[in-house]
Amino acid sequence: MIQGDIKQSLLPLVWVSMPEKKTKYLIVGGGLAGTLLSRMMEKYGQDFLLVDKPELSNASRIAGGMFNPVVFRRLQKSWMADEIIPFLHDFYPEFEKQLGKQFFYPRKLVKIMGSKEGEFWQSKVDENSYISKELQTYFPQETISHAYGAGEVAYAGNVDIATMIQSWQSCLNEKGLLIPEKFDFESLEIDENSIRWRDVEAEKIIFADGWLVGHNPYFNFIPLKPTKGEVLTIEVPRFSSNYIINKKIWMLPVGKNLFRVGSTYRWDDLNEIPREQTKTEILEALERYLKLPYKVTDHQAGVRPTVGDRRPLLGTHPEYQNLLIFNGLGTKGVMLGPWFANHFLEHLEQGNDLMPVVNVKRFQRGWFRKKSQNLNPKS
Ligand SMILES: Cc1cc2nc3c(=O)[nH]c(=O)nc-3n(C[C@H](O)[C@H](O)[C@H](O)COP(=O)(O)OP(=O)(O)OC[C@H]3O[C@@H](n4cnc5c(N)ncnc54)[C@H](O)[C@@H]3O)c2cc1C
User: Fold this and answer.
1) From CA 210, how far away is CA 286, in angstroms rounded?
2) How confident is the model over 34-79, as pLDDT tens digits?
C-alpha cells in the first residue's frame, strides 16, 4: 500500500524530468537544407533527429531544382563552380543509390542567343570551360525558335527535390528519426551544454527553417531578403527534349511532353500564393521561343531564403553556443547545398574553420545591436 503510494507520487515526476529521446543534433526544417545536412550527418555517423512540418514552407518542394555552373549575365563560372560541381555529381547519385529512387538528372542546358549575344558568348569560350565552343541549331525553328543559334552548358542538370525529400523522410520515419510536427519556440529550453524541446534532449539544435527564419527569435537578426518565385507546369503534346532550354525563362523536361517553366523574382508579396499576373509574364516570355501549342497544368509559388550578399549562412549563434544555423541557400540550393553541408560537418566534427564569407558571424553585430538598444533581441 505504502509502496504503491510512493510509486504513484514519483511516476509523474520521473516522466517530466527524463527526456524520452536523446540525440546529438536536433535539426529544425526538412526542406533542401535540412535534408542535405541530415544526410551528411548520417554519412559522418552522427546522431540526429529531424523536425519538419512541410506545410509551413514549400520552396524546396516546388523548385525547378536546376544546377548550372554558368552565370549567364556575365558568362562567368558561378561562385566556386569548380569545387561544387564535381562534388554534387558524386553526392546525389550516391544518395539516390541509398534511397533506391531516381531524382538526379544530369542534362545539357541550351542557351538561346539573342541577335547580339553570340559574339559575347564566343569571346568567353577560352576562359569558361563549361560553355560550348560553337553555337548550333538544336531544334526545328517551328518548334523552338532560335534564329541566332544556341550555346550549350555542360555539367548542368536538375534534381527532383520533392522526390528526394519524400524518399529521405520515409526512410527517416522508418528509423524513428523524423518528428513531423511544428517546432515551437515556447517549448525550447537552452542550457549551457544542451537544449531541450518537448521530450527531446540534444547537444545542439540546428535551424534549417528556410525563409521562416524571419520568425525565428534567435536568428531573425540576419538580413534575409526572401525572394518569391513562381513556376508553371505545362504539357506540350508535340514536343519532347532532354535539354533544359533557357532564354530569360527556362523550360525543364520532367516527363514525356511535360515541362516546368519559370521562374520569377519578387521581394514583396511574400507568400506562397500564385498570381495570375505572374503566370501571364512567364507565358509571354516562353512564347518568344516556344512555337507549339501547350496547356498549363499547374502553377505554384514559393519563397527562397536569399541573403543580401548571396552567400549561404552557416555557424553558431553569437551568444548561445548550442544554437546553430544552416540556411541562405537562396537561388542555388541544389548546387551549394551538398558542398556546404559537408563543410559544416567538417567544422562541427573535425573543428575545421568555416569560410568567413559563409559564417553567420558576419552578421552578429545585428544581434548585439538589438541588445544594446535594449530591445528584446528575441522579438
Ligand atoms: C520558384 C522557385 C524556383 C527555384 N528554382 C531553383 C532551382 O532551379 N535550383 C536551385 O538550386 N534552387 C531553386 N530554388 C531555390 C531553392 O528552392 C532553395 O534554395 C531551397 O529550397 C531552400 O531550402 P531550405 O531547406 O533552406 O528552405 P525551405 O524549402 O523553405 O525548407 C524549410 C523547411 O523547414 C520547415 N519549417 C520551417 N519552420 C518550421 C518549424 N517551426 N517547424 C517545423 N518545420 C519548419 C518548412 O516547412 C520546410 O519544410 C527555387 C525556389 C523557388 C521558390
Assistant:
1) 29
2) 999 999 999 999 999 999 999 999 999 999 999 999 999 999 999 9
Q: In a mutational test of the pocket of ligand 1, which residue from 36, 52, 91 has the highest number of ligand atoms less than 8 Å from its CB?
A: 52
* Number of other CB atoms surrounding residue 105 within 10 Å: 18
Break the chain into its structural domains and give their ranges.
Answer: 1-65+160-223+307-379
- In short, whether 260's Cβ falls inside 6 Å of ligand 1 is no
At position 347, the amino acid (one-letter code) is H
Identity of the amino acid at 168:
W
Ligand 1 lined by 131 (C-beta under 6 Å): no
If one counts every other C-beta atom within 10 angstroms of the C-beta of residue 12, the result is: 9
Residue 338: CB within 6 Å of ligand 1?
no
Taking the complete model, does pTM exceed 0.90, yes or no?
Answer: yes
Q: Judge if the beta carbon of residue 310 lies within 6 A of ligand 1.
A: no
Q: Which pLDDT tens digit goes with each residue over 286-333?
A: 999 999 999 999 999 999 999 999 999 999 999 999 999 999 999 999
What CATH superfamily is the domain 1-65+160-223+307-379? FAD/NAD(P)-binding domain (3.50.50.60)
Cα dihedral sign, 223-347-36-109:
positive
Q: Which residues contact 367 (CB under 8 A, 6 or more apart)?
A: 221, 317, 318, 319, 377
Q: Which of 334, 339, 340 to mutate to test the pocket of ligand 1 (most atoms within 8 A of CB)?
A: 334
Q: Which residues pair with 299 in a beta bridge?
A: 232
Are 13 and 187 in contact by the 8 Å Cβ rule? The answer is: no
